[in-house]
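We close this part of the discussion by returning to an individual protein. The encoding preserves chain order, so positions in sequence and tokens coincide. The sequence in question and its structure tokens are set out directly beneath this paragraph:

===
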Amino acid sequence: MAHTRENPSDPAAAIEAEQDDFFGDAGPLFAGPVRHVAETLEKAKGRGRPKGAANKRTTAMRDTILAMGFRHPALNLAALANASPDELARELGCEKAEAMGFIVKANVELMPYMESKRPVEVHVEERSLGVLVVGEMPSQAVADGVFSLTGEIAEVEEEQ
């Protein structure tokens, strides 16, 4: 017979009824003094821009600059990277070596847009480790200081 308030005779049923009452009255996760946590989480939902989305101010500034007739900085770098060192030195009023330095820097800046970086090569050094045996194990000694733990010794053919 199950435990009820009218029939408190079954102790196991009494414990089950208490547990039902304990968990049945549980409210939402953030009830009571921590309700502000749920409200903060609810307010924060949907805020900010999604991952990978462009910043609106940056996009607006770029569009304004390009609409004013300015060239994209990448085009300026490309023109500098492709310039003749003699003409650039003459135009800037500097030495040919200094002009060549500007050209090299422009090429370095543009390189990631022209060629992707090669994957990093990983070299794995293979090492064989010994076996540590704790306790006593029967073994057979064979030539060159090799021991067989199983008692079976097999010859290994070497590849040529």
Q: What stands out?
A: The first strand starts at residue 140 and ends at 141. The chain has a mean pLDDT of 76.
